[in-house]
Design a protein that fits this description.
five-stranded parallel beta sheet, nucleotide-binding, NB-ARC, alpha/beta
Amino acid sequence: MVVTDLFVGEIATELIKHLLEISRKSGLCKSNAKSLMAGINELLPIIQEIKFSGVELPSNRQFHLDHLSRTLSEGLELSKKVLKSNRWNVYKSLQLVRKMEKIETKINMFINGPLQLHLLADVHHMRFETAERFDKLEWSAKKLEESIGNFKTGLGGGGGGWVEEAVKKLEEEEMNWESSFGNNFYSGLGIEEGKRKVKEMVIEWENLNVVGICGIGGSGKTTLANEICRDDQVKCHFGNRILFLTVSQSPNVENLRAKICRFITGNDGIDGMGYDLVPKWNLQFEWGIGTPMLIVLDDVWSLPVLEQLIFKVAGCKTLVVSRFKFPNVCNATYDVELLRRDEAISLFCHSAFGKTSIPPAADSNLVKQIVDECKGLPLALKVIGALLRDQPEMYWVSAGQRLSRGEPICESHESRLLDRMAISTQFLSKNVRECFLDLGSFPEDKKIPLDVLINMWVEIHDVDPEEAFAILVELSNKNLLTLVKDTRAGDMYSSYYEICIIQHDVLRDLAIHLSSCGDVNDRKRLLMPRREAQLPKEWERNADRPFDAQIVSIHTGEMREMDWFRMDFPKAEVLILNFSANDFFLPPFIDDMPKLRALVMINYSPSNATIGNFSIFSSLANLRSLWLEKVSIGRLSESTVPLKNLRKISLILCKINNSLDESVIDLSHIFPSLSELTIDHCEDLIHLPPSICRIQTLKSLSITNCHNLEKLPPNLGNLKSLQILRLSACPTLKMLPPCVCDLVWLKFLDISHCVNLRGLPEWIGKLSRLEKIDMRECSLMKLPYSAESLESLRKVICEEDVFWLWKEMKNVNLDVQVAEKCYGVDWLDDD
C-alpha cells in the first residue's frame, strides 16, 4: 500500500464533514452539497478497503488514485470557501455552485469509468494468481516429500547428522547471546536503571512521540535498546507491535521508509517489492491508528535521514538510538551512563575469564588496574578483556603498563578499539575534527575552562568566538565532550567560569591516538598524554631537527632550568604548560617559538608556583592570549618590551604580589592593545591599579571572586571602549565610583554577590547603551531615579525585594528576573 491511499481516505472523510455542514445551511449550494456527498459516500468504502488492504497498486491505478486525490482536495478547499462565503452574495454563490458541479462530474466519471474497469481487472488477476499459487504449493509438497529421507538420515541413528549439528550450533549461539546480553547478566551491570528511565519515557509519557538514547561509541546504547524491546511490560503495552531497524551510516532510506509504512499499516509481513512506489517527499502526516506501536531506529548518524524516518502517527512512538543528540526531533533523550567500578569488573571478567567476578588464580590488583584504565566504557572493557583472554601473566602486566601510559596493548587493541571509536570523528567537518583533536592537549580528568579553548581555537583555526562556541555545542551533541554549566550560562555575556568542558578519558585517548600518527617531528600536535617527571625521551632523541607542531602540550612536575633541553618550534602557535609544582622554570625554547600566539600555564599543585625565567615574556612579540592559573606573578619592569599584540590576559587563582602596581609598571605601556582582562580568585588584590584605566582598547574588565578588593580606581570612567564590567563576588567592595557613569559604551554590568555594595551610582541613567544588569544577592534597598533613563536596558537579574522596584520603572520592554539561589564553585574542584 502506498501513502496516497491514506491521503485519499482522510481527505474524503474530511470533505464529507464539510458537505454535511453545507447541506444544513440554506443557500444555493445546498442541493449540490447533498449530491456530491452521495457520490463520495459511494466511494468511501472502496477507498477504506484499498487503504487497509496492504496491496501495492500498479502505476496506472496509482495514477487514477492520484487524480482522485487531487479532485477531492479541490472539493475540500472549495467546501471551506463555501462555508466562509456570505450567503447574500448571489454572484459569488453562483460561481461556487458551478465549481461544485464540475467536481461532482469528475467524481461520477471516475465511478462510472476507471473504477468499473479496475473491479473487472481485479477479478481476472485473482483467478489467475489463485491457480498459480496452487501450482506452486503442489510443487513444494513434492520437493518436501523427496527430502524427507535425507532429513531422517541426518537425525537418526545417533550419528549427529547435519540437521542435528545445525540445530545444536543455533542453540549454542542463542545460549551465548543470552549469556552475553540477557537480562540476568546485564541487570547486574546497571542497565536496569537505564531501562527504567527509557521505559518511563516510552510508556508513561504520552506527550513524547520521539525519544532518544544517546551515548558515545561502545557505551551500550544498542544493548539497552534491545533490552527495552525484550521487556515484557513494553511488549504488553505495545501488543508486541515493535519494529527494530538498524539505520547505519549509509542507509537505504527508501527501503527503511517502506518497511516502516508497512509496519504502521499492519502489513509488515509483506516484503521485498514496491519500494520504488514510496513517495520521495518527507513522510510527515498524521492519521489515527488503534493499537500502540514502537519503532526503534538504531545507529542513526544523520539528521536529514532521521527526519525522513519519523512518522507522526497517533499511538506510534519512535525510539532513536545514536551517538548524537537530535534536539530538534527528539522530545526527550536519555544519556547512557557508564559503568560503575563493580559493574565494570563484572563485564571485564565476563569477557576475559567467562565469569562475572575475578577468579582466585588471577592477580586481583592487576585486573582492577586494567579495569580502571577502561574508565567504565563497555566497549573498552569487552575489547580489552577479549584480547587478554588466555594470555600469560607477563602479557597482562605489559598490558597494564601500556594502558597506564595511554598506549595500545597491541596492534589488535589499537585497531579494534580506537579505530572503531574513530568512526565518531570521520563525519565531522575539517574544522570541527581539528578542534576535537585539540582536546587531547589537556590533562586527564581535569575540567577545561571555556575561555582557554575558545581563545586557542580563535587563534589557530581562524574562527570567531561565536563560531568556536558553536563547535563546542556540536561536539557536545555528538557526545565527544560534555559541557558543564551553571544556571547563568548560555547568555551572550556568560563568563568562563560559568561553562567548562570535560571529556571522557577514552575519548581523550582517541584524540591523542589520532594526533600521534607519523614521525614525531612532523606531527601537528606534540602532546604528553600523562604527567611525567621529565620530557619524553623520544623528543630528546629527535631534538636535532625542528618540530612542525602547531600545538605543544607539556605535562610535568617541578622543572628547573637544567631539566629542559633545546628544541626548535618554528610553527608553534599554542603552548600549554600543565604542571604540578611549587617552582617552575619556563622552558628556554620559548625563544624558538616566533609564531607563538597563545600561552596557557596551569598549575595543579595545592599552592601557587613561583615562576622562573619570567623575563622570557619579552620575546613573545606575537603573543595574543595569555592564561595564568595558580602561579605567583613575577615583577615586570619599565624596561620590559611592550607586548603590542597581546589581546587577552586571564589571571586565575594567582598571587598578584603588587606586580600590577602603578609604582612598578605602567600597564598601558606594556599592554597597549589589551581588549580583555580577567582577574579571578586573586586574594591579594586589594586595589585595582589606576594604570589599567589608561588602556583605551580595553573592552572587557572582569574582576571576580576577589574577596579583598576594597575599591575601584577613581578614573575608571576613562575606559571609553569598555563594554563589559564584571565585579561579581567581591564582598568587600562597598561602592561603585561615580565615574562608572562615564562608561558610555558599557552594555553589561555584573555586581552579583557583592553583598556589601550600598547602591548604584546616582547618574547611572547616563549609560544609554547598558543592556543587562546582574545584581543577584545584592542588598540594595532603592534605585536611583536616573535608572528610568536606561533606554537600552532589556534584562535585570535581582533579588525578590528589588524585583518590584524595577517593575515600577516605565520601561515596558524590561525583563526582570528573580535570581535562583543555586550557585557554587564546582568548576574549581579539579584536584
